[in-house]
Specification:
This protein is mainly beta. It has one helix at 39-51; strands at residues 11-14, 19-25, 32-37, 62-65, 70-76, 81-86, 98-103. It has a five-stranded mixed sheet, covered by helices on one side.
Length: 104
């Protein structure tokens, strides 16, 4: 997670049924988060957060990572397709802080 509003790597490929442990390192100076989902789900989450910016949210498919800290998300991909991960902190998603998971 970088303050240039990018994830490294920006894309990964996995096999259907594979469990992935995302190790999230925030190498920036501001809070970042990792939210896993489809583009439609992420877009809806961004709209909801714009309406309720102080709304607390926690789920197995997301992690909030303070500057200089690490976090993790463990997820089993049980469907093939394209999924995304994004930082939904205000303005970060819009600035392009998005990555892709291709599940084959």
């Amino acid at each position: 997670m970088l303050d240039t509003m990018r994830f490294v790597p920006e894309m990964i490929e996995v096999k259907r049924g594979e469990t992935v442990r995302f190790l999230l390192s925030n190498d920036g100076a501001v809070l970042h988060e990792f939210v896993l989902g489809t583009k439609a789900i992420l877009d809806e989450h961004v709209r909801m957060m714009a309406q309720h910016p102080d709304m607390p949210h926690e789920a197995d498919y997301m992690a909030h990572v303070d500057p200089g800290k690490t976090g993790e998300v463990v997820w089993t991909f049980n469907r093939a397709g394209r999924f995304n991960y994004a930082c939904l902190v205000a303005g970060h998603y819009q600035a392009g802080m998005v990555g892709a998971v291709l599940v084959k």
